[in-house]
Write a structure and sequence with these properties.
About 45% of the residues lie in helices and about 10% in strands. By secondary structure, the protein is an alpha+beta fold.
């Protein structure tokens, strides 16, 4: 007997009418291909667990989605990866699913990857290093206030940007000068621009 979760029964029952046969087909196929799989709910969606997350499914207003956790190593045809969550694009009927033999093969391949301890090769996104344009008058003020400069230089890009934008967006020279002075004082105290709103 497959290990099922009543919460997934409820999830399917609450899904749109078009989605129910799709979700039932996915569920049955996963259990057929990997009898040891266990069901659960994560992030409000049905998940199938086998030595970690094996796969998941979801229903939306106008489509369903199926996601193999290591799908980038299982599914060769990546043409539908960007259509929706998962590897098979927007599923609007059971006809959008791969043929059963192929579908079972994908799940068994994913199971084997878990058995072998293979990690996903999904490339990590590396953030490009941004360069902040600091106006000369701001830099000059930082040189006068060493403590402020030390804090400013140690801050991440986002916190430095908050200070620079606050000063440069001033509508008058007087406002800009006042903001610049306040910035130096707060920075000298080690404070971020929005320190009043930060949790202690």
């Amino acid at each position: 007997m497959p290990t099922t979760d009543k919460r997934i029964d409820a999830y399917i029952a609450k899904s749109a009418e078009f989605a129910q046969p799709i979700l039932r087909t996915i569920r049955d196929t996963v259990h057929e291909a990997c009898p040891e799989v266990e069901e659960t709910i994560k992030w409000s969606m049905p998940f199938f667990m086998y030595k970690g997350i094996l796969c998941s499914m979801a229903s939306f207003k106008q489509h369903c989605a199926f996601h193999l956790w290591k799908g980038d190593l299982v599914v060769d045809d990546k043409s539908r990866f960007d259509e929706a969550m998962g590897q098979f694009g927007r599923l609007t009927s059971t006809k959008d699913l791969p043929p059963k033999r192929v579908f079972v093969g994908y799940i068994r391949k994913a199971k084997q990857l878990h058995d072998d301890g293979v990690k996903s090769t999904r490339p990590r996104k590396t953030a490009e290093k941004k360069e902040l344009v600091v106006p000369s008058y701001f830099s000059a003020a930082l040189k006068k206030y060493r403590k402020a400069k030390t804090t400013f230089d140690a801050f991440p890009y986002s916190k430095r940007k908050e200070y620079v934008e606050w000063v440069t967006e001033a509508k008058t020279d007087g406002t800009r000068d006042r903001r610049l002075q306040t910035s130096m004082e707060w920075l000298a105290e080690g404070k971020a621009r929005n320190w009043k709103y930060e949790r202690c």
